[in-house]
Amino acid sequence: MNVPCVRVPREEGEATRRTLADADLLDHGHDIVVDDGVLYIPVADATAVPTDYDVVDYDAPAREGRTLPEDVLGFEPSYERLGDIVIVDEDDPERAQAIADALVESDIRAETVVNRASKIKGELRVRDWDVLVGDDTETVHREYGFEFLLDIASVYFSPRLATERHRVVEQVHEGEHVFDMFAGVGPFAIPCAARGAEVVGVDLNEAAVEYLRENARRNKVADRVTAVHGDVRDVAADYTDWADRVIMNLPHSADDFLDTAVAVAGDDCVLHLYDIQHEDDPFGPGLAAVRAAAEPEYEVEVLGEQTVRSYAPHEYNVCLDVRLTRRA
């Protein structure tokens, strides 16, 4: 079956394999393949592979003798990985525990297995977890060559948004001023800084801000990241007319902060507004809200409309990219 693989010339294969192994990115369930002088190295998480590697889908054979959770259970369970934590989402506690036990029996590496015990709640955007295996909810998540230390019990983080974060980060230019209004542990802020931007990341969750500072140090961009704990509406007063780019990743209520985004925007500013809307008009309400906040001081130009993922029946998580240009 086709799986994500790093494709490298054969003479670079061993060095590449060691690098991927050190980053815990190797997929041990499939064999490395040599084909016409090219090595295909299966990886467990394509989004976490550094961008200077070529990642392709390739038909690598499954490794003999590997035990998977479905081999133990008799059905294929649904789960996702976040660093060395495996997350399941089951309403039935007995089924959740059975999946956790099967994960332990299998060859899937899992230091901790948790089950979602609540929806995301409160202004700090955290959820409750039932810990089924292990006891450590702190982990290191790797994404597009960056690593993020975080504790799922005290901060919000979604590995599912890696591709969308990368899409935005790829637009950032050296020397930009980036204002990340709801920065969390830094999955937007740190890659933006790595591209040469000066970044201000704000969050109401004090634990998230501490992880943001630590992650800036881990990824060697601390000199370009200012992490601020507080309500972004208060913090913005220190950054009036400062930003070349504003990131608003708070989909359920980001539009409530558009006046703040406009206040920090410079003369020419790109705004990334995340939203949850009905499929009938996923981008219209967000654009109307931007226009209401920015006009007539700014001209509003739509740069892009991105459907990030399905959120609920007939509802989508979307991102509206707009340019605000101050009128003379």
TrEMBL record:
Protein name: tRNA (Guanine37-N1)-methyltransferase
Keyword Transferase in record: yes
Gene Ontology MF terms in the entry: tRNA methyltransferase activity
Gene Ontology biological process terms in this record: tRNA N1-guanine methylation
Cellular-component GO terms for this entry: cytoplasm
UniProt entry tagged with the keyword Transmembrane helix: no
Coiled-coil annotated residue ranges, if any: none
Matches recorded under PANTHER family: TRNA (GUANINE(37)-N1)-METHYLTRANSFERASE (PTHR23245:SF36), TRNA METHYLTRANSFERASE (PTHR23245)
Domain SAM-dependent methyltransferase TRM5/TYW2-type: 79-326
Keywords carried by this UniProt record: Cytoplasm, Methyltransferase, S-adenosyl-L-methionine, Transferase, tRNA processing
